[in-house]
Amino acid sequence: MTSETQRFIELSDILSLKLKCKGCGSALTIPSTRQMAMREELGKLSTCPICRKPWATLEGSTYEPLIIEFVSSLNKLRTAFKDAPIGFALTFEVADEESRRD
To answer: Residue 90: inside a domain, yes or no?
Structure first.
C-alpha cells in the first residue's frame, strides 16, 4: 500500500517571505503585505544586511525586480480574491520536509 499526503496553502496563509543568507546564515523576514516597489525599498535585497554578500545580484544583474513583482502580484491576487464572487478557491501545494532535503 502507498500513502501520499498533499499540503496546500491559501493566499491568506502566506504571511511573509524569508531570505536566509547562504554566506552567514542570517535571515531577513519580509511581511508579504509590505509594499516592496516603493522607492525607499529598492536595493534592500541586493546584499545581506549582515555580511554584505550578494543576494539578489548576480554578475551585474539583479533579481530584485522579480522578487518585488512576485510580492506585488501576490498582494494583488489576495486583494482581488478577498471579496470577489469567483467560482474557485486558489491554493498552492507545498513540499513536505522530506522532499525538500533532496
So the answer is: no
